[in-house]
Amino acid sequence: MIHWETIVKRREFSVLILIGALVVVFSIFTERFLSINNISNLLLQTAGIVTASIGMTMVIITAGIDVSVGSTMGMACAVSGLALTAGLPALLVFIVAIAVGLIIGLFNGALIAYGEIPPIIVTLGTMNLVRALMYQVLGGRWISGIPPTIRFIGLGKMLGIPISTWIAGFLIIAFTYFLNMRPLGRYIYAVGNNQEAARISGINLKTTLVFVYALTGALVGFAGLIYVARTGIVQTNTGMGFELDVIAAVVLGGTSILGGRGTVVGSLLGALLVGIIKNGMILLNVPALSEGLVIGVLIIVSVLLDLLRSKR
Amino acid sequence: MKKFWDFVIENRSLFLAFVFLGVFLVLSVLVPGFFTLYNLTNMTQYGVELGLLAFAETMVIISGGGGIDLSVGSMMSLVAIVIGVLIGRVGIPPLLAIPVGLMCGASMGLVNGMLVSRIKILPLIVTLAGLYVYRSLALIVAVDPQFGPNPMPVSNFPESFYFVGQYRIGGIPFQVLCIYLPVLILLHFILTRTGYGRKLYGVGSNEKAALFSGINVKNIRLSVYIMSGILSGLASWIITSRIASARPDIGTGFELQAITIAVLGGVSIQGGEGTVLGVVLATFIITMLNNGLQLAGIHQIWQLGALGVVLIGSTLLNQFLIKRRKL
Questions:
Q1: Which of A119, A243, A280, B151 could lock onto A26 through a cystine, CB 3.0 to 4.6 A?
Q2: Membrane-spanning regions, if any (chain B) (predicted)?
Q3: Which of A118, A128, A289 sits opposite B308 (nearest CB)?
Q4: Mean pLDDT across A189-195
Q5: For residues B58 and B46, what is the distance between their CA atoms, to the nearest angstrom?
Q6: CA–CA gap between residue A127 and residue A107 (Å, rounded)
Q7: What are the chain B neighbours of A114 within 8 Å (beta carbons)?
Q8: Mean pLDDT, residues A233-251 taken together
């Protein structure tokens, strides 16, 4: 039996409606919006944010935050870019990128869980530190001329849909299952809802926290690989501001900053919403300058709608 | 001896004073050109903008309820470009344009504060949205139709505008003596000697109790965001005057540095805790570190890197010492 009322009340539903409305508006006013080319472009551009937002969703569900994901992604890009230009095989680079993210994530998680430092402080610190280390790794130079071995992840297609979109889609399904059906997935919600209660009921708080941040790091490392594969360029400022896009996607998708509530599907929709707005505005020739204005207002409006609905 | 160290640990400001001395000694010995009168006075002017933003974060974070202001950098950018456009393109005298800029900062703070205190949206979300919106507005305002659709910096200021950022009184930079110090004293006075200050700490440490004891929690929360907007405006005025240019991206990244300094200075992210003195010391430490790294010829990105290390290191050390003391 389908409970329509609960579905309509969900945040994901209102985001979906918003996406639908935007798609209609953009396809009426621009000819290219619904073209296969544009849609696959759109999916390609959001794949990285979607991948990273899965991790961020879990972090925020535990009532934490990770502002270091932009730097982590940059670092993963830098290291995998160097490895690729040095001629390492694609599969090895794939592991390297994820390992870089995993290490940074483990570092964050260990400091948060065992050092008992608030997440915003730890990740603010690593954000700055990793950015400086990344500069050191790059030696202040750009990396370009990435060999074509890896570029299939960014540019290749299967059944007309980009490979990276397939992977992001698979991850969304896998983690939806994980968060809803696996014990560890449920622990994440429990920790976010009530840390003390979770601890008393025998959940290992520290392991859960380390796991969540490490996983976020690994996913962000993978997002970095997608970025390198798509653009073929790494600069010192690669990934700067990425954390804000990811957080915006997760928040728009209905994950509560207070913890305990949220879904990765919501974050997927949030990321798509941001992606569609950016894409549509370019097609409509709206100056890119007002992009932030639209996204910012949208964040507030969507939260306001939630508040209004819950009061009714 | 053990008692002495316990006391140091207990007292964040004293702890920071020791860190300050340590960093000062190390830099004086290791970095040539650091320990000169010129450098020591010169250095202070670079810390003023960041120091004011750190004060903004201090007030907001003390107010609790997840209080944080991610939009200070963007507010700074928008105020800078408003002042720049008014003076450089419209031709309004600075004496008129600067108050307009500060009002602009205050109104952005008002919007943030209303959304947080009246509509009860979490500060992280409100100010994240603010970060996007104000940054975007700064870019839009910076567009000069004469030169096409791109945002342009403004730098044709009259000579009088440079006073606040570039002049000295008795060897001490003007902005240190006439803006930073008065703000510091005023905020310290407000927090320690007034009913408002006590209410602010009360709201931050226990909202319910504050509400029941008749404190207007909403207005207190509203006020800190307005203050944050005004302080961002002040910082913006000083930096445009110092570098003689109003750029629409001038404040980018400042929010995180400001939060870092506030937290390093002992402001508890949970609210209700923190002193002006601690934040001032933290500002000194970071400014000094930045200056030392610069003199040593290390790339400026490491200023941020060092900031990260100091932030994590000091918090970790603090936690460790507190734990050991409890045993």
A1: A280
A2: 12-38, 50-68, 75-92, 122-143, 172-191, 222-244, 250-269, 276-295, 301-322
A3: A128
A4: 77
A5: 19
A6: 12
A7: none
A8: 84
